[in-house]
């Protein structure tokens, strides 16, 4: 059957990770949107990962904010904007410019970001604008500036394909930059010489392509890379000519690294001497080495030193800025890079200029013709919220970020928002924890509606184009900011006709008084007419005016750094003693991401397809630690620090090392009873970048005792879940809910209450087996099915979810269902591995057992892994696991 007709096809860019994939969005006559990869986009050449592929399913208007609100009541834009302008103006008048602040995000567009930064730094006159990039890229920015004199990423994605040694440090590329990972996978398949080393305390999906996995002790990266510098130096693997011509401070850096004593390095990193020697020798011998690093490096109290220790090894070997070589910090958010370009961080000025530099301040002020210019760095995120908590911030505007969930000491952040007299939140959804703290709520235009540019990890600027009308009274972020600026009396400087006008100004500023003195220059784009802006093809910077096409866009092959003497600076990094864990909080809490969710789930959390992969918050615990703590798989575990606690499901696995636990960052109060992991994370920051060490918090773990456990599938989301433990996720046709209660209660009455309008509830109890099951139907449709037990419930989640899609059942069949004897046409797929084709663990395992022994064989018989490819490393793991043992595959309650 032919589907609905396509009205238009729009080329745009994915709103999730920093890979920056091009998307073709086909808007259909029935209002739906079909999504595919743009084959012409140079980031992805047609590929999309699971999150990008599911974009069309996340555009629903459920929970959307449609109108401005003041103190919870609907208001007009005029009322809301006047109030925001008044309160900011009043605070500045009474308490000075530093009494107000903006906290923005790498998920707004460059044009939004430019306006926010201009208003705060040039017109309000404070640098109190910080961004969630502080939690993300700040250590890389600080490290780049210390080494290069500018925040420059020298390389391109092609370098990851053309290198012969790819070192991935603190990066789970397979799950976090999946399309880039697939490019690497393909390059490795095409070049058998290519080697991949993964440096991560944890075994991740990325290890599937690793020739060597160095599971180092948490935060021991500086010891590892200082050791590498010493090794390169002792092995004579240096590029003396490059060091001499283009750098300063080599001797100090080598002295600081000390001698390459393998025993000492092995002790500091916890790595085997043999593995260290292998890694060091590989690097010494391989000219074409790229070192990619991400949050295992940045999110650390030694993050900036980690960055510089890595960069030192590239400067010492002259492996920078040439094809297939270089240090490469991959960005997380779709516009982390754009935010850095406009100077969105509290310690930066616009266009990669430095706030401490009086010349730069003069250039920016002159260009903006602004009444003032911020003269000192503003408050960095963690300090900003501390200041708010102590009453120093009188008005705060939060835009496109959810700090009550994503900042460390997140309960303290909630307190800060309560303490701050005036909080403005611009968001697209009501279902975000931060929204609840707003005095004024501004409804923003979402992806698919807004229009502008983003810059990806390799400095490539791409257009996000609107394909849908603005719903309700939503407005883009740049408009909200400009309107407030105009109402604060700055009309002349903020009277923009649209994103194209802002982009032209931004591009012009990048070239203003530049003459090669600054890396960021896109002045060639300063004259784009609206139609040219609309048609802008993806383009990599630099683009100084007069630059010819086809010119080199890599940096630093021939030095020419952005320091005063144009030489790079080696940074003498010292190994710091690891942070103490101590007796009360003996475990190190590591946090991070899962494959199919984006941050606080406000968008990816909407689609059953993405929830199917992992549907419940969990903690990975090493078997030895679990045993010692009396924790079994699928128990509910409290993970606690002096700041706060979460209660999550235990996954007992050797993937984490002893003494460490891992909890994903995604779950919020919207979807679980107590799983905001940042409530636990300590607000300790790096001294240079101010970035929190979100990967290292001393914690205690303990099994929590419940008298009953439950799993339910329900047609509609219950109004309130009044139980001690719960976690909810969408599934096809309804919702899936995990529950547990401390006190005994009448569970039949409880489930009937939750179902509300179900008729003919059936009940089945087996006291010997210790279970109770209750199900209700509404006409022919299942309304809800509840599985209770005194232990964690051992029913297949995937099978139970499929009940919501099941056909009409006779009364007899309904009893069989409750007894867990499903009809033959309802087999248990097992936990979903391939989200595109909804193929489960059990199906893949069965196919492997039947002889499908490769990814392509699995693809041929099940389609699994043949669309977005995000699950390929997991399928490979099932195939690999088969040769070891296949019987562990149905794991109760664990994330499935
Ligand atoms: N699916 C998905 N993809 C995403 C995102 C998402 O939310 N979901 N978010 C995007 C964003 S904003 C970002 S910033 C990126 C982040 O991308 P990544 O940085 O790749 O992701 P994380 O899972 O945060 O952390 C990476 C790894 O660091 C390891 N690590 C912890 N401590 C250390 C250490 O001391 N040393 C080393 N070497 N490694 C350590 C962790 O075990 C973890 O596996 O992902 C982007 N892509
Ligand atoms: N423990 C721990 N904490 C972490 C991390 C970690 O690894 N571990 N990682 C950190 C990192 S790297 C990052 S980047 C942060 C991310 O953390 P956040 O930025 O807090 O997470 P998001 O869920 O992406 O929040 C984006 C918000 O903006 C809204 N939104 C979406 N589009 C728009 C728009 O166009 N306009 C407006 N106004 N709003 C919009 C969304 O609905 C959502 O509420 O988390 C950080 N926190
Ligand atoms: S890799 Fe996935 S999330 Fe990242 S930009 Fe591409 S499609 Fe979007
Ligand atoms: Mo990030």
Describe it for me?
- The protein has 896 residues and is of the alpha/beta class.
- The protein folds into six domains: 6-58, Phosphorylase Kinase, domain 1 (2-Layer Sandwich); 69-135 and 335-540, 3-Layer(aba) Sandwich (Rossmann fold), CATH 3.40.50; 138-329, Dimethylsulfoxide Reductase, domain 2; 587-702, Barwin-like endoglucanases; 708-818, no CATH class; 832-895, BFD-like [2Fe-2S]-binding domain (Arc Repressor Mutant, subunit A, Orthogonal Bundle).
- 31% of the residues lie in helices and 19% in strands.
- The chain has 30 helices and 34 strands.
- Residues 885-896 have low confidence and may be disordered.
- One ligand MGD is lined by residues 17, 136, 169-172, 175-176, 199-202, 204, 218-219, 221, 294-296, 300, 332-333, 590, 592-593, 595, 597-599, 695.
- This is Nitrate reductase.
- Keywords: 4Fe-4S, Iron, Iron-sulfur, Metal-binding, Molybdenum, Nitrate assimilation, Oxidoreductase, Plasmid.
């Amino acid at each position: 059957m032919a589907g609905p007709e396509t009205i238009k096809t729009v080329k745009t860019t994915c709103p999730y990770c920093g890979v920056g994939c091009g998307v073709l969005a086909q808007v259909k006559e029935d209002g739906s949107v079909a999504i595919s990869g743009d084959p012409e986009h140079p980031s992805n050449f047609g590929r999309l990962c699971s999150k990008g592929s599911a974009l069309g399913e996340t555009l629903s208007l459920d929970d959307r904010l449609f109108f401005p609100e003041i103190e919870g009541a609907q208001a007009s834009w005029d009322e809301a904007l006047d109030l925001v302008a008044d309160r900011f103006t009043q605070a500045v008048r009474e308490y000075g410019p530093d009494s107000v602040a903006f906290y923005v995000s790498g998920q707004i567009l460059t044009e939004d970001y430019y306006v926010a930064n201009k208003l705060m730094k040039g017109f309000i006159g404070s640098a109190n604008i910080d961004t969630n990039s502080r939690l993300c890229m700040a250590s890389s920015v600080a490290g780049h500036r210390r080494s290069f004199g500018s925040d420059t990423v020298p390389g391109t994605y092609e370098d990851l394909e053309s290198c012969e040694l790819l070192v991935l440090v603190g990066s789970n590329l397979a799950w976090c930059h999946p399309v880039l990972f697939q490019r690497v996978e393909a390059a490795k398949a095409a070049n058998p010489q290519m080697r991949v080393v993964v440096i991560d305390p944890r075994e991740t999906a990325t290890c599937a392509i690793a020739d060597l996995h160095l599971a180092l002790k948490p935060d021991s990266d500086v010891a590892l890379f200082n050791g590498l510098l010493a090794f390169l130096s002792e092995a004579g693997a240096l590029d003396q000519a490059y060091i001499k011509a283009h750098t300063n401070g080599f001797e100090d850096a080598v002295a600081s690294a000390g001698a390459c004593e393998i025993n000492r390095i092995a002790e500091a990193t916890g790595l085997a001497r043999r593995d260290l020697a292998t890694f060091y020798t590989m690097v010494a011998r391989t000219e074409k080495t790229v070192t990619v690093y991400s949050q295992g490096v940045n999110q650390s109290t030694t993050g900036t030193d980690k960055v510089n220790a890595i960069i030192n090894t590239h400067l010492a070997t002259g492996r920078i800025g040439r094809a297939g070589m270089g240090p490469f910090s991959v960005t997380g958010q779709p516009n982390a890079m754009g935010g850095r370009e406009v100077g969105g961080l509290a310690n930066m000025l616009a266009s990669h200029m430095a706030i401490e530099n009086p010349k730069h301040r003069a250039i920016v002020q002159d260009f903006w013709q602004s009444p003032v210019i911020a003269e000192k760095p503003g408050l960095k995120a963690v300090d900003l919220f501390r200041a708010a908590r102590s009453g120093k911030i009188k008005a705060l505007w939060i835009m496109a970020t959810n700090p009550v969930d994503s900042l460390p000491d997140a309960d303290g952040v909630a307190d800060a928002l309560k303490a701050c007299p005036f909080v403005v939140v611009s968001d697209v959804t009501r279902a975000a924890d931060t929204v609840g703290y707003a005095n004024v709520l501004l409804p923003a235009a979402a992806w698919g509606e807004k229009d502008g540019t983003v810059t990806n990890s390799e400095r490539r600027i791409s257009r996000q184009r609107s394909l849908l009308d603005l719903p309700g009274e939503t407005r883009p972020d740049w408009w909200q900011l400009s309107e407030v600026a105009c109402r604060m009396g700055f009309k002349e400087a903020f009277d923009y006709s649209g994103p194209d006008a802002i982009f032209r100004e931004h591009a012009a500023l990048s070239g203003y008084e530049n003459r090669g003195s600054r890396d960021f220059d896109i002045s060639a784009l300063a004259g784009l007419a609206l139609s040219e802006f609309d048609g802008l093809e993806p383009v990599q910077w630099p683009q100084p005016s007069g630059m010819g096409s086809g010119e080199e866009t890599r940096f630093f092959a021939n030095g020419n750094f952005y320091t005063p003497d144009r030489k790079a600076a080696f940074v003498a990094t010292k190994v710091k003693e690891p942070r103490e864990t101590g007796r009360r909080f003996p475990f190190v809490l590591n946090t991070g991401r899962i494959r199919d969710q984006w941050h606080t789930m406000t968008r990816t959390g909407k689609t059953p397809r993405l929830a199917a992969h992992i549907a419940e918050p969990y903690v990975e615990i090493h078997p030895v630690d679990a045993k010692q703590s009396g924790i079994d798989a699928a128990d509910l575990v409290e993970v606690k620090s002096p700041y706060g606690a979460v209660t999550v499901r235990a996954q007992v696995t050797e993937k984490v090392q002893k003494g460490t636990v891992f909890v994903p960052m995604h779950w919020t109060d919207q979807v679980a009873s107590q799983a905001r992991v940042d409530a636990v994370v300590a607000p300790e920051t790096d001294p240079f970048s101010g970035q929190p060490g979100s990967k290292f918090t001393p914690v205690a773990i303990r099994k929590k005792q419940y008298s009953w456990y439950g799993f339910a599938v329900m047609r509609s989301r219950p109004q309130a879940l009044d139980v001690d433990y719960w976690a909810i996720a969408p599934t096809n046709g309804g919702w899936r809910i995990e529950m547990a209660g401390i006190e005994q209660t009448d569970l039949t009455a409880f489930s009937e209450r939750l179902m509300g309008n179900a008729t003919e509830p059936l009940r089945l109890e087996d006291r010997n087996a210790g279970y109770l099951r209750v199900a209700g139907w509404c006409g022919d449709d299942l309304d809800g099915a509840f599985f209770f037990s005194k232990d964690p419930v051992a029913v297949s989640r995937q099978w139970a979810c499929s009940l919501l899609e099941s056909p009409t059942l006779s009364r007899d069949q309904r009893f069989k269902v409750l007894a867990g004897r499903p009809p033959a046409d309802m087999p248990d797929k097992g936990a979903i591995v391939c989200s595109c084709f909804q193929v489960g663990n059990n199906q893949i395992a069965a196919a492997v057992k039947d002889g499908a022994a490769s990814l392509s064989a699995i693809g041929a018989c099940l389609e699994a892994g043949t669309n977005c490819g995000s699950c390929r490393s997991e399928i490979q793991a099932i195939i690999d696991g088969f040769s070891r043992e296949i019987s562990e595959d149905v794991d109760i309650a664990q994330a499935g």
